[in-house]
Design a protein that fits this description.
The chain is of the alpha+beta class. Helices cover 11% and strands 27% of the residues. It is built from three helices and nine strands. The longest helix has 10 residues.
Length: 173
């Protein structure tokens, strides 16, 4: 255990998670858990982090997350899109062209990236928990390195914004 730690108890969707952030840069989470996507094999932090973070803080958070003793990372836009559910246009393989290999607005962001409108619940698998909002990906916008792509799970849309604003975080391995 570290000498200089911050402790926080989070209540997210009825699940209590104990978070300790140490001066070593590691973030330890216990009482939370994971969810494995049967379609991709990706293992997702579940519930999500629960705090708004800038893109860089989100990158650091995931890189330093110690959950199940494994290494985690902030998902790429393709990884993040893989958990979109019930919105065919933005699900993996849908009309939205934004992927790890296509990160331009003009040639990749089609009208299909605009999502499917609001619904009761989030556009993600029912086994996932967290705040239904927008989540950072690690994928930077191709033309502007001060922007990164995200998914807004409230309506299933895919877009980008400045990395200095705050969004939610769900790490993957």
């Amino acid at each position: 255990m570290c000498n200089h730690c911050k402790f926080q108890i989070l209540l997210i969707a009825g699940v209590i998670a104990f978070v300790a952030g140490c001066s070593s840069g590691n973030v330890e989470v216990s009482g939370g858990g994971t969810w494995t996507d049967p379609a991709t094999g990706y293992v997702w932090q579940n519930p999500s982090a629960g705090d708004f973070m800038t893109w860089q803080k989100a990158m650091d958070y995931c890189n330093n997350l110690n959950l199940d003793g494994k290494q985690w990372h902030l998902p790429t836009i393709s990884e993040l899109r893989s958990i979109i559910s019930d919105c065919p246009a933005t699900q993996t393989g849908g009309e939205c062209g934004v992927t790890d290999s296509c990160l331009y607005l003009s040639s990749c962001h089609t009208s299909g990236c605009n999502g499917c409108g609001s619904k009761s619940g989030c556009y993600w698998d029912s086994n996932l928990t967290g705040i239904c909002s927008w989540y950072w990906s690690s994928s930077m916008y191709a033309l502007y390195s001060d922007n990164a792509w995200y998914v807004f799970f409230d309506n299933g849309s895919v877009y980008y914004d400045y990395k200095t604003i705050t969004g939610y975080v769900r790490c993957v391995r």
